[in-house]
Structure formats: C-alpha cells, structure tokens
Amino acid sequence: MTNLSASHFILFIVLIIAVFQDIKTYKIKNKTILAGISLGIILNLFQNAYPLKVGLINKIIVILVLYIFYRIKAIGSGDVKLYFVCAFFVEYSLFYKIIFISFVLGAIISIIKLIVDKKFKFILFKFFIYIRDLFYGRVRKYEVEKDQKKSVIHFSIPIFLAVVINFCI
C-alpha cells in the first residue's frame, strides 16, 4: 500500500462528491470540476512534483483522445472533465493506468448490469448491428434512447475505483 498524501486525500474527496452528483443527477457539476482542477494546479505548484508545462501537454493529449469517446457517446462530458481533474493529481504514467483500469471496471460493471437487467443478448445484438453499420458508413455515433437511461452506468464510479485501486496497491 502506498503512502497517501494530502493531494490523494483531496482527489478522493473531489471524486466522492462527483460520484454522488453523478448518481443523483446523471451530471457532475462544473463547480466540482473547477474546484478539483484549481486544487490540483495549486498542489502541483507547491509540491513541484513534475513540471506543470510537460504535465499539461500530456494531460491535453489524453483529454483529446478521451474527447473522441465522448463524441461517440461512450462516456459523458462530465467523465472527460473528471479525468482531467485526476490528471492534475497524478503523474501521467499513473494517469494512463487509471484510464485503463476505469474502462475495464466500466466494462465489467456494464456487463453485470446488462445480465441482471436481462438485456445482455438484446444489447449485444444491437452492438453487432451498430458495428456493421459503422463499418459500412451508415452511422457516425451511438444513439442512446431515452428509455435506455436505466442501462447507463455512472462512469464516475469506475473512475473513482480505479484511483482507489492505484493508490492503495
């Protein structure tokens, strides 16, 4: 188990607030995101853990990649912004691990939710239709129907769990 610093504790608090907001409203407030980014920048300046300029370039590159996932509706805009908050609290090699682990956890949670809701076969069928249509250029993004909102997971939870796993192992 790694030593948890004050910056880790602050990131946990910001993530917990974001998770509760996401569960309650399906949105993460911009105030929470701005507070997290501000605290992350301030801590970076005082701790001087790694050059902010180099770290910022890496963060922007990763966020641009995550933006693609947002554009195809794989994750929400609040989730992309939440990743950006995390990026200010960890070095970029750990940040990549957080992204990877959160996507694995998100996939596991999604599959479990689909099985419990007895929608796995239906969604799998729709997924293959979507891939086929995407291959033939018939579709550009995945549309989530209003009644499918119950099938959507709160992706802030896998992000939070990925951070906990990375800090506690």
UniProtKB/TrEMBL annotation:
Superkingdom of origin: Bacteria
UniProt xrefs under InterPro entries:
Prepilin_IV_endopep_pep, Prepilin_peptidase/N-MTase
Which GO molecular-function terms appear in the entry? Answer: aspartic-type endopeptidase activity
Q: Which Pfam families match?
A: Peptidase_A24
This protein's GO cellular component annotations are: plasma membrane
Tell me the protein family, please.
Answer: Belongs to the peptidase A24 family.
Q: Which organism is it from?
A: Lachnobacterium bovis
- Protein name, per record: Type IV leader peptidase family protein
**Alphabetical keyword list:** Membrane, Transmembrane, Transmembrane helix
Keyword flag Transmembrane helix: yes
Domain Prepilin type IV endopeptidase peptidase, residue spans: 9-111
PANTHER family assigned: PREPILIN LEADER PEPTIDASE_N-METHYLTRANSFERASE-RELATED (PTHR30487:SF0), TYPE 4 PREPILIN-LIKE PROTEINS LEADER PEPTIDE-PROCESSING ENZYME (PTHR30487)
Instruction: Please give the Gene3D superfamilies that the UniProt record associates with this protein.
Output: 1.20.120.1220
Indicate whether Transmembrane helix appears among the record's keywords.
yes
Which terms under GO biological process does the entry name? signal peptide processing
Q: Which residues cross the membrane?
A: 6-23, 32-50, 56-73, 94-116, 151-167
